[in-house]
Amino acid sequence: MPADPAAPQARSANRPAGRPSRIAARFAALRAEGRGALIPFLEAYDPDLATSMEILRGMPAAGADLIEIGVPFTDPMADGPIIQAAGQRGLKAGATLAGALAMVRAFREGDDATPVILMGYLNPILSYGAERFAADAAAAGVDGIIVVDMPPEEAEVLAPHAKEAGLDIIRLVAPTTDAARLPLVLNASSGFVYYVAITGITGTKSAAPEELAAAIPRIRAHTDLPICIGFGVRTPEQAAHAARVSDGAVVASALIDTLAKSLDAEGRPAPDSARRVLDQVRALAQAVRAAR
To answer: What is the CATH architecture of 22-289?
Structure first.
């Protein structure tokens, strides 16, 4: 169900007055249409810059409502084997945080509307410089960031700079997030809330529909932000269910798996590697759009 504008507590705390939010605008438009969002994921530079740019540029036409870009990192503790392998391919191809920002800048030359979220880890941001990163990310056209290993209690290193730059910090809420901690996490969130549907790493299992149906109202009681479900959403049917019970579905490992299976023994893409991924995005988008 769409977010209730009358719900209490957490608001978009990181949004400064002067910068409009593509994320908020997109969810408002989807709410007016009466449907949920599809948020597909790609890993920057996987398996090379050209292929990942082709996938990125093709995602909006294939039905992506928002796009999540993973920034390869050497120690991705929340990622399962599929995305870990994608990150290794990306690093081998020369991926850096600056390179991921350059991808977003290039994407913005042809698309100024689709929200883009960077997902990654804190160490590369600190190495880049937190204040510089926030300013450069906003200038490149990034709308939100997911920093997997940055809890709210340790966010002061980045959060003020993100707020100043107008970047949403999207927080992860897990099945193990208890009632005492939930308001703390949500009050530090903006953009949308990412519900991690399973305990454990990405791409290893899926949540039962009844578990999702019970979990989302618990979160929605504390926030008016959109809630999207990720981790374990692999099929069109699972994406459709996620879009029915929440505000959107995030699909990552399934798309990376399709890309990986298209590569040759040396990890090089086939002529139709990007098309295979984009065809899968279309199937997911059709299911999400027909879900309600």
So the answer is: Alpha-Beta Barrel (3.20)
Q: Which of 68, 136, 247, 257 is catalytic?
A: 68
Question: Dihedral of CA 92/98/100/104: which sign?
Answer: negative
- Tell me the pTM: 0.91
Residue-range domain boundaries for the chain:
22-289
Residue 43's CB is within 10 A of a number of other CB atoms, namely 32
Would residue 68 show up in a list of annotated catalytic residues for this protein? yes
Cα dihedral 178, 179, 181, 182 in deg (nearest 10) = 100
d(CA 78, CA 41): 15
- Contact status, residue 211 vs residue 246, Cβ threshold 8 Å: no
**Candidate list 43, 46, 79, 143, residue with the active-site label:** 79
Tell me the residue ranges of DSSP E strands in the chain: 37-43, 67-70, 116-120, 144-147, 168-169, 172-173, 193-196, 227-230, 248-251
Q: Is 43 a residue of the active site?
A: no
E strand intervals along 148-272 = 168-169, 172-173, 193-196, 227-230, 248-251
Please write the tens of the pLDDT for every residue from 75-128: 888 788 999 999 999 999 999 999 999 999 999 999 999 999 999 999 999 999
pLDDT in tens, 19-36: 679 999 999 999 999 999
Cα–Cα nearest to 86, from 275, 252, 274: 252
